[in-house]
Specification:
401 residues; 8-stranded mixed β-sheet; Rossmann fold; 6-stranded parallel β-sheet; alpha/beta
């Protein structure tokens, strides 16, 4: 028996989580069909995307307003398509601004809905709980403190752990990672993760390059590794290296391989997001930074409930790694913060212990937990014919192989 699941992911982190979900479900329910909006990792697992995922990868309030007409059009077309198809289940992977409205429409149409990855209700979006309750039948949370918040609000929720915590070994093989990057034991290596979206690179590329230049001037022989996932982002970063006259940096742009760079590096400069968690699981001391338009930042801080934005700090419940945001994100400040990690062995060792506790908390068999949570909808699913060819022009399917 094969089921059909409509699914939407909106950016690189959602694509990673969605790929793990597709793989977990298909290992237990072979032949399950996934279609909707998917990124390259989900497509590699066999999902079909009807709209390029990049259409949903909008950064910040201001940018979202500019893209709103197209996003609303895509959501309306997708809602009509899925309501017509009547899949066994719809799963929204993160992207709450897009997915919650879509989920609400589909739930009203009688299609079961699950939201995977909680919106940040614990940080600055507590007001969303009523809307989430109206939109979904269940929330799958990746952090342990989230499910009780939903249950208290009367919303069904299941903690499933984080797939990265299962994929990354408790003690990463740092020597092997450094060998793959041809790093000697004594070499100083710094990973630079400026973000996966073009908008993030526009905000961070110069800042990261200038920080690396300052660090290299103080620490001759330092090597830098920049994992970037697409040709577009690689080309853009290279263009900024020339613009900043930084071609002399010992800097290697990697095609992906963020985890390898983090496992090999002595420290990392990371744009806030899922990459900060990956850095913690890879046991890499880091400095977290981020820049957004001033209006976006003011709106976010006005609603903030926690004093930190980085996932390692949120999970630890205190600042265990520095966060330098907005006007505090200067090359001078960032270079000094990275240098502190390089210079203080005792601080690094204490941090690695905290990272280990976070890893143990999140490592709980995500694949099996996800499959069990979705079993009520998938275990009784029957075979369906493939969905009809879409009539909307933007819904031109790209099928994974």
């Amino acid at each position: 028996m094969a089921g059909r699941v409509a699914i939407v992911a909106g950016e690189a982190s959602g694509d990673m989580l969605g790929a793990a979900l597709v793989r977990a479900v298909r290992s237990r329910y072979p032949g399950t069909e996934f279609y909707g909006i998917a990124g390259p990792k989900m497509i590699a697992e066999g999902a079909t995307t009807l709209v390029p995922m990049e259409k949903l990868s909008v950064r910040g309030y201001v940018e979202a307003l500019r893209s709103l007409p197209e996003l609303l059009r895509i959501r309306a077309s997708l809602a009509s398509r899925i309501a017509r198809d009547r899949p066994d289940l719809f799963i929204g992977v993160d992207a709450p601004d897009f997915n919650l409205g879509l989920e609400a429409k589909l739930k009203r149409a009688g299609i079961p809905t699950v939201h995977y990855v909680s919106p940040s209700i614990w940080a600055w979006r507590a007001g969303r709980l009523p809307a989430i309750g109206r939109a979904v039948d269940r929330v799958l949370t990746i952090f342990p403190f989230e499910a009780p918040l939903y249950e208290k609000a009367g919303i069904a929720a299941t903690y499933v752990g984080h797939p990265l915590a299962d994929q990354i070994p408790p003690v990463p093989d740092r020597a092997d990672a450094r060998s793959q990057l041809r790093l000697s034991d004594s070499a100083t290596a710094v990973a630079l993760l400026p973000g996966s979206r073009r908008g993030e690179l526009q905000a961070h590329a110069d800042l990261f390059i200038d920080t690396a230049s300052r660090l290299a001037a103080r620490r001759p022989g330092a090597r830098f590794f920049v994992p970037l996932a697409t040709r577009e982002t690689r080309d853009f970063f290279e263009s900024r290296l020339y613009a900043r006259e930084a071609q002399g940096l010992d800097l290697t742009i990697l095609f992906g391989h963020a985890r390898l760079a983090l496992q090999a590096a002595d420290c990392a400069l990371v744009a806030s997001g899922t990459a900060t968690l990956e850095g913690a699981l890879a046991r890499c001391p880091m400095v977290i930074t981020y820049r957004v338009p001033a209006l976006t930042y003011r709106l976010m801080m006005r609603n903030a409930l926690l004093p930190y934005v980085g996932l390692p700090n949120i999970l630890a419940g205190e600042f265990i790694v520095p966060e330098l945001l907005q006007e505090h994100a200067t090359p001078e400040n960032l270079e000094q913060a990275l240098g502190n990690w390089l210079d203080h062995k005792g601080a690094r060792e204490r941090l690695l212990e905290r990272y280990g506790a976070i890893h143990a908390q999140l490592r709980c068999g995500n694949d099996e937990r996800v499959a069990q949570a979705l079993a009520p909808w998938l275990s009784s699913a029957t075979s369906h014919a493939p969905p009809p060819t879409p009539r909307e022009p933007e819904l031109a399917a790209v099928r994974g192989r």
